[in-house]
Amino acid sequence: MNMPDWQSLVENAYDLQIMDEPVSLFFQPINRFYHQNLDLLAQWADYLNVEKGLPICRLLRNREGQFGTEINGESWVLMSREQMRRDQGITTGMMLAELHLQSSGIDVRAFPESPANSRTKDWEDRMDALERKYEECLSRKSQSAFEQIFLNNFPYFSGCAENAIQMNVDGFIDFPNQDPVCIGHYRYSNDDHVVDENPALWVVDDRSRDLAEGLRVLVWRTAKSYHEPDVFKFLDDYESRYPLTEHVIYNMYGRLLYPLAFVECCERYFFSSNSTDQRELELLLRHCEEKAEDNEQLLSLLAQRYDGQLQVPEWLIKQ
């Protein structure tokens, strides 16, 4: 495949005279957008960037008025990123809160890919599929190294998932008035510094999604145990801009209780991996096993922080 002349392509296909500020440009494949309603994504990106001053990459239309431009048989979107940053003094927790707050109440019906209303069923289906693999591995006389680790740990992680699913079910009963959804991320990275938001990675969901992932990252990326001050700072910074409701706390806790990393690792092994991935997945599964205690400590810490606002499984109250 011949690489296109990107500069000539941009000059010919786009009218960039309307740009008031210096920007950096990059192309994003349309099939890498989680949501496909590009018109509405662009409206939200413009609003959050121009009106609210948040560091958001914007989608640019070509001369034909379309977001998609055909390049080598694939459709791409030209994106712009401001070169002058306006986020001095804002932390990642504050930035996340602003994104959630300013997009709160976004119409989930315009984004049919949203997982907001299917979380419980999705969790159940995924655990059911892994349970079938568990029974299948048990019935065999020999297992791979990965499968041995899987067999040793599945009962524990399955129990965590059952508790998380029950919290989800109880949440719909205890909180009939659901919190509004907002713009979040497919996988929130909780970087050490504020980065420009890419709408291709946005997911319309409730805000507990990003909060749980942000805390999970703090546990996952440290060599040993996470640092409590990092957890408190992230939550304090977030809540200084957008306080948590009991429902959000409840959902966040349930998401952290659900063993997402374990589930995704096992799904890759059983349903989509090739032979070259197996050693990598074995190491990843061992890491899930090693981090289980740290995650329990995090859950216990949150139970203490939100005491009186949250009912948690008894086995997590005193760790």
From TrEMBL:
Superkingdom, taxonomy of origin: Bacteria
GO cellular component terms given for this protein: endospore-forming forespore
UniProt-listed SUPFAM superfamilies: Protein kinase-like (PK-like) (SSF56112)
Signal peptide (residue range): none
Protein name (Swiss-Prot/TrEMBL): Aminoglycoside phosphotransferase domain-containing protein
Organism: Sporolactobacillus laevolacticus DSM 442
Lineage: Bacteria, Bacillati, Bacillota, Bacilli, Bacillales
